[in-house]
Amino acid sequence: MEKDIIQTNMRYWNANADAWFGATALPAYGVKFVTDDELHLFGDVSGKKMLEICCGSGHSLKYHADRNATELWGMDISYKQLENAEAYLNEYGYSAKLICSPMEAEVNIPTNYFDFVYSIYGIGWTTDLQGTFNKIASYLKKDGIFIFSWNHPLYFCVARSDDLSRDVIEDDKLIFGRSYFDESYFNIPVGGSEVTFCNRKISTYVNALAKAGFCIEQMIEQTDKETIGSVDDNSDKTKKAKMFPISVCFKVRKL
After folding, report:
1. How far is CA 22 from the centre of its chain?
2. pLDDT by residue (tens digit) across 121-160?
């Protein structure tokens, strides 16, 4: 089952990489969410070695290159994403060591080596959360930092039961279409195709991080101030973001 899910998602990203070029990349951590310009989770990355899991089109790698990170690595399941990332970085005179692989796989990445491992809206694609966190811990130096963002678990609970990609708001009230406790895999139709993943509880992330040897320094759920203060935007997503977090971000340290 896990291999089938990985293959389904790999096909989607190879076919649709161009459509997502530059989407959800630093300094943004998510949709209608506070950015690193406000959070400063990375701090000074000058001279630091960085590994991005699910690096996509390379925009977050460039973000760190612009801030004088000394060594850039990126992993992604999609060869097309990596082609885009290489071309994008080269355009600005940067380069990175790019690896095409599922994050769950054993790959030739040095251990006890990186100052930062991070993932911007990528970790939730894993079919083996504990194994992925264990691998990330092995890549990091002692006291190294792991930062990742993803959909908040509540986001997919407030959706149509027959189509989890669509929101439900009735009389300005949000309707739960899925149990928060349901961590089974489901398919989401996207642009004539589909992707597959599960919706994990916050406690599932927290316990897996602890088991992998991480100490949580920060967990952020804030909707950005612009969305909270909006009076003209009446979209379903804005209404949801005003009532609960759409995204979540963790900063953890390897013990």
Report:
1. 13
2. 999 999 999 999 999 999 999 999 999 999 999 988 885 4
